[in-house]
Structure formats: structure tokens, C-alpha cells
Amino acid sequence: DARVTQTPRHKVTEMGQEVTMRCQPILGHNTVFWYRQTMMQGLELLAYFRNRAPLDDSGMPKDRFSAEMPDATLATLKIQPSEPRDSAVYFCASGFSQSNYGYTFGSGTRLTVV
Amino acid sequence: AQSVTQLGSHVSVSEGALVLLRCNYSSSVPPYLFWYVQYPNQGLQLLLKYTTGATLVKGINGFEAEFKKSETSFHLTKPSAHMSDAAEYFCAVSDDSSYKLIFGSGTRLLVRP
């Protein structure tokens, strides 16, 4: 089965450090989403891309978060500097731009900032 | 703007009982609607989706959902709950205008023996 691969699965870092999370979408998928999941806020859409172009990143704190797709096989989410409130599970999902196909999620990166 | 409301953050049923998880959506364009399931410490798995055509859609694990445009609803049902159905369920909406995928707050299903 094709899958969305996220690395690392777990990350513990100290406040102020840079964190980079990576996502390999399913080959051929042209839409990529980044979500953050916490108990308090649920699933928040941070950013999404279509054909590698950012469509909307209004869900991200701009001063510290950045999302990019350097090529069709890699999406990155970077936090610099990290803060304890960034502790969450970050999910990547990919699919075709026609929404009726649905989207496939990765297993997530569990980030803990101490 | 799209939005999804899931009524009930927790739903508890007995094993063998009917499962009903409620979802209402708001969308200014024809929506695509999805139900996802999340088991502990895992990602989200697509249960079923409504795109166009038949309003009653069947998914995996015996779940189904009915799209009711007049009620702006897409409730998820299963005739008989199994212990293995205990998980969190998310309703989501998307469309071919914005391509956004917006989730509801989730409903945790508990299944009692």
C-alpha cells in the first residue's frame, strides 16, 4: 500500500532549538497538508500546497513556523525557535487536488519541547 | 468559509448497539464530505467519503453515512458496535474551489462490553 511517510516519529527538543519535520507524500499526489493536533485545539490546518505552490498558510504562526515543498517528493515544516506550546502531534496528508479522492495521512511526528 | 460541527465530544454505546455520530457542515459550494477514524497513537484513516451521486455511502468496517443537503448533515452510523470500534472519529469537509480539508473537533466513541 502506498503511504505518506513522516520523519521523525518522535522528537524531544529544548526550547529555542530549531525543529524540522519532513513528509514524503504518495507519488503522484499533488496536494499536501500540514496539521497540528492537540487535546485543546484538535486538528488545526497549518498550511497546504497544491502542485508545490503554497495555497494557504494562514494557520501558522508566521514568526516562527515555515512550510516548504522543495520538490514533489518532500514537504518540510520548520519551527524556529521552538517553544513549549508547540508540543503537539504534527500530521502530513497528501492527495489529488480534486478533493473527491480523499486524503491519506502519515503517522505523525510527536513533538515535545521542554 | 467551510466549517464542520460534530455534536458530542464523547459517545458511549454498548457492544451490539447502534452507533450514531453526528456531523453538520457549512459550505458555500457543493461539499465533499469525509469521515476519518483515529486509533490511539496513529494517524487518521479514511472511513468513507461523499462526493456526488448516491447520498448513502458505505465505508469500511460496516460504517455508512448519509448526505442530507436540506439538513446540511452527514451523520455516521453502524448497526452494531464492536469493541474494536472504540476510537476517535472526525468529520471533514472539502471542495474543488479552495481544496482545503477542514475537520470537526472529533467524537470519541466508547464501546462498553
Order of helices and strands of chain A: EEEEEEEEEEE
Give the amount of beta strand of chain B, in percent.
over 45%
Total helix count of chain B? 0
Name the assembly state. heterodimer
Number of strands of chain A: 11
How many strands in all of chain B? 11
Radius of gyration computed on alpha carbons of chain B: 13 Å
Biggest chain contact: A-B, 24 and 24 residues
Give an overview of the whole structure.
The complex is a heterodimer of chains A (114) and B (113). Chain A has 114 residues and is mainly β. Helix content of chain A is 0%, strand content 55%. The radius of gyration of chain A is 13 Å and the shape is globular. The mean pLDDT of chain A is 93. In chain B, the strands form two sheets. In chain B, strands 2, 4, 5, 9, 10 and 11 form a six-stranded mixed β-sheet that branches. In chain B, β6 and β7 form a beta hairpin. Classes of the chains: A mainly beta (114), B mainly beta (113). At the A-B interface, β4, β5 and β10 of A face β4, β5 and β10 of B.
Which features characterize this protein?
heterodimer; A: 114 residues; mainly beta; 7-stranded mixed beta sheet; 4-stranded antiparallel beta sheet; globular; B: 113 residues; 6-stranded mixed beta sheet; 5-stranded antiparallel beta sheet; 11 strands
Summarize the entry for a quick read:
With 114 residues, chain A is mostly beta strands.
Q: How are the elements arranged and paired?
A:
The complex is a heterodimer of chains A (about 110) and B (about 110).
Chain A: E1 5-7, E2 10-13, E3 19-24, E4 31-38, E5 42-50, E6 53-56, E7 65-71, E8 74-79, E9 88-95, E10 103-105, E11 109-113
Parallel strand pairs in A: 2-11
Antiparallel strand pairs in A: 1-3, 3-8, 4-5, 4-9, 5-6, 7-8, 9-10, 9-11
Chain B: E1 3-7, E2 10-14, E3 19-26, E4 32-38, E5 44-50, E6 56-58, E7 64-68, E8 73-78, E9 87-94, E10 101-103, E11 107-112
Parallel strand pairs in B: 2-11
Antiparallel strand pairs in B: 1-3, 3-8, 4-5, 4-9, 6-7, 7-8, 9-10, 9-11
